[in-house]
Amino acid sequence: MSTAETMSRGGIPQKSIASRIESKTAKIGIIGLGYVGLPLAVEYARQGFQTVGYDVSAERVLRLNAGKNYIDDVPEEHFKEVHQSGLFSAQDDYEGAGDIDVFYICVPTPVTEHKDPDTTYIRSAAESIAAHIREGQLVILKSTTYPDTTEGIVQPIIEAAARKKGLVLGKDWFLAFSPERIDPGNKQFTTANTPVVVGGVTPACTDVACLAVEQVVSIVHRVSSPKVAEMEKLLENIFRSVNIALVNELARLCDRMGGISMWEVVEAAATKPFGFMPFYPGPGLGGHCIPIDPYYLSWLARRYDFETSFITLSARTNEEMPFYVVDAVVRAVASQGVKVSNAKVLVLGVAFKRDVDDTRHSPAEKILSLMTEAGFENLTYSDPHVASFTFGTRTGEVTLEGVELSSAVVAAADVVVLLTDHSAFPYSMIADKARLIVDTRNAFGGVPHDREKIMLLGGGDF
Ligand SMILES: NC(=O)c1ccc[n+]([C@@H]2O[C@H](COP(=O)([O-])OP(=O)(O)OC[C@H]3O[C@@H](n4cnc5c(N)ncnc54)[C@H](O)[C@@H]3O)[C@@H](O)[C@H]2O)c1
């Protein structure tokens, strides 16, 4: 889209901000330097924009300014490039934030103990922007949240400060929602080549936000409002949660029936070239998104006396999986003639998914917690991406240090429990040396193994 089009679509002249973005003289401010914010900041800096990252963690800021990257998805050479060029720097305060032209909010959106949305981080970020709002600024909220957060929370906070300066939204300053789609560990789809959705509060807001996003993303899809963009993001996550729950339920049916592997069933169904998309069973949901985000919508729906049955049902089904896995481990141990309290159990993988170091809400947290409460006293784990791992139990937190994987470590375990199918694991060696494997990911499907040694979730024998 050209600048001229940008002007005419919104019908309001935003020459200064549009031309600053197009000429790459706009200054970018990214609030929250985690899995979402840091890759985005590095991408803007690589495209030639002066970019400042803001984070409340002084330790993170210190590390970044010392040239140390902590997010696996940011290639070391990219980080070095923007650190050395001076185009990227980090701050734990907002000094000089009045110079920022485009603010992105990439802060956490967790749930409370009662699974209600916790928007305190978004509010705090919006307040920081409000303190520096000036003519010509664009604010884009990226944190996943329920429909109406942009207009119902961020807008009033900034607008209160903007009005005092005589600034009108959609004319003097701009606000949009543009959800994040980053898939940690995915080497094929990154910030630059994953299409992004943008919805502004006014058409002019959408124009300016699209222009800003287009600087780092090749395909931008406009929608008519922030609410549509907010709902669209939740649909993506709920779609995954529901489909994973469906295969998890059918996997348990296969186990009960015996003689049918859900993995083979999915593989066969996936040969249909239309109308089917494969999802796989597993030990439970993990990560910062799928186990959390659907609750944002069910909470909102309750305000409208509306029950989101698919969300509730899929959450319930997926949340039962760790219990199902622990039951299988107890049976596996019993089959070895070992008491639970004496059993040596080696857990492979505690990250929430393959080839990442992120352990937030990983199924391993719940599974190790349940196993500890069930009386397992000899639990060890190995994960090439996670050096130490903390999980809660009823009596307090437990921290385990990961062990280096070797044939001796595998052979010493009464039962090996595979929770995360990292590609670095030596599957042939494990299959060879283990006495019994509880496989929740079909990780051993591709290596020769003794069928009797493996209890496969959804494999008809779990
Ligand atoms: N991680 C993902 O794969 C992913 C994918 C899509 C969407 N999201 C969404 O993006 C948002 C951010 O997720 P994330 O995974 O990057 O979180 P994260 O925890 O990795 O990073 C958030 C960062 O924000 C900082 N922070 C918190 N409050 C702040 C404040 N007031 N000001 C400045 N910094 C602050 C934290 O210190 C942290 O460094 C969430 O809403 C999440 O649901 C995440």
Description:
Helix content is 40%, strand content 14%. It is α/β, with parallel strands linked by helices. It has 2 domains: 3-224, Rossmann fold; 260-456, Rossmann fold (3-Layer(aba) Sandwich). The strands form 3 sheets. It has an 8-stranded mixed sheet, sandwiched between helices. The chain has a 5-stranded parallel sheet with strand order 10-9-13-14-15. It has a two-stranded antiparallel sheet with strand order 11-12. Strand 5, helix 7 and strand 6 (174-177) form a beta-alpha-beta unit. Helix 13 (321-335) crosses helix 14 (363-373). The longest helix has 32 residues, at 226-257. The protein is elongated and about 75 Å long. Nicotinamide-adenine-dinucleotide binds at residues 31-37, 54-57, 60, 106-109, 121, 124-125, 143-144, 180, 182, 184, 288-289.
Uncertain parts:
1-14
CATH class of the largest domain: Alpha Beta
Q: Report the mean per-residue pLDDT as an integer.
A: 94
Strand order of the largest sheet: 3-2-1-4-5-6-7-8
Q: For the CA atoms, what is the radius of gyration?
A: 24 Å
Distance between the termini: 55 Å
- SS-based class: alpha/beta
User: How many beta strands in the DSSP annotation?
Assistant: 15
Bound compounds, please? nicotinamide-adenine-dinucleotide
Report the sheet-strand fraction.
Answer: 5-15%
CATH architecture classification name of the largest domain? 3-Layer(aba) Sandwich
Provide the CATH topology of the largest domain. Rossmann fold
Fourth-tier CATH superfamily name of the largest domain = NAD(P)-binding Rossmann-like Domain
